[in-house]
Please model this.
Amino acid sequence: MSPKSTLAFVVSLHFVLYALLVKPADGGNAAEAILLGVFSFLLLAAGVVNELFLAADPS
Model:
């Protein structure tokens, strides 16, 4: 993994963990936490797909 990909992965993972662990515990809006979690998971999945399939292509 390149440093840029690693940084994107860590940032995405941070948002996923924030949405799952911190946001529900702060007594905030549950729908906001769910949307943040879904968006963060999609961001993380896009980064994984990019790293596995697009960045690994030598051509």
